[in-house]
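In this notebook, the sequence line spells out the residues, with the fold written below as integer tokens. This is how one looks.
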Amino acid sequence: MPTWLPITYREFYDVPRVFTVAVRGEWLLFDCPFDEASDEYGTDYIVYALPVPPPSTGSWAGLAGSAHQRGTIGVSAVTFDSTKRTCVGEESIEQFLSATP
């Protein structure tokens, strides 16, 4: 049974396209930007560690600029709850978590 972590998201197309999750005392940002040239969303999230919690209101434009990139993960590799709007499975993102629990 997965361990579910609450998320907050700003864009949604089939799944959240940009979301944050707080886990083990840090904030992670998962960003799947829209590609204007292909008129499609990408197939991967770029994952960032945020130095501070994300703003609770307003735009997240530029949020990644203040963050440290941790890597990438395929959108299809991230496990969401049945609504795809509330939680993410910890096991599917564990490679991006700090070693300290």
